[in-house]
Automatic annotation (TrEMBL):
Species per Swiss-Prot/TrEMBL record: Mucilaginibacter gracilis
Alphabetical keyword list: DNA-binding
Coiled-coil blocks: none
Protein name (record): DNA-binding PadR family transcriptional regulator
Record PANTHER family: PADR-FAMILY TRANSCRIPTIONAL REGULATOR (PTHR33169), TRANSCRIPTIONAL REGULATOR RV3488 (PTHR33169:SF14)
GO MF, one annotated term: DNA binding
Record domain Transcription regulator PadR N-terminal: where: 19-90
């Protein structure tokens, strides 16, 4: 089932955590690359839209979690995002929060954990 990220409120709440984790794993990424990585990891089940991604990236940058650099690639400007030290320090906490929430949701809804 295809689920656009921008229309799934359950995923919206985890978007910042997803971005932080991807950047922790990949050092630096540009916006389109992030959308493609989400698509790849979820086998196309989740499509991260630009309308959802860029406001989240800008918010994380404004909060000091991300920094940006620009490079010219194939005569086009590409903006790369990477974690700041503060952002790097936040990843583990955000992942723990997400894990705890998933476990609570599983208990509340009587769902079996994913294997």
């Amino acid at each position: 089932m295809f689920v656009p990220m921008s229309t799934n409120p359950l995923l919206k709440g985890t978007l910042q955590t997803i971005i932080l984790k991807l950047l922790e794993d990949n050092r630096q990424m540009y916006g389109y690359e992030i959308t493609q990585k989400v698509k790849e990891i979820t086998a196309g089940e989740i499509k991260l839209t630009e309308g959802a991604l860029y406001p989240a990236l800008h918010k994380l940058e404004a909060e000091g979690m991300l920094e940006t650099t620009t490079e010219i690639v194939d005569s086009r400007v590409r903006k790369y995002y990477r974690l700041t030290e503060q952002g790097g320090n936040q990843v583990a906490g955000k992942l723990n929060e997400a894990q705890a929430f998933i476990e609570q949701l599983q208990a509340l809804l009587n769902l079996k954990p994913a294997l």
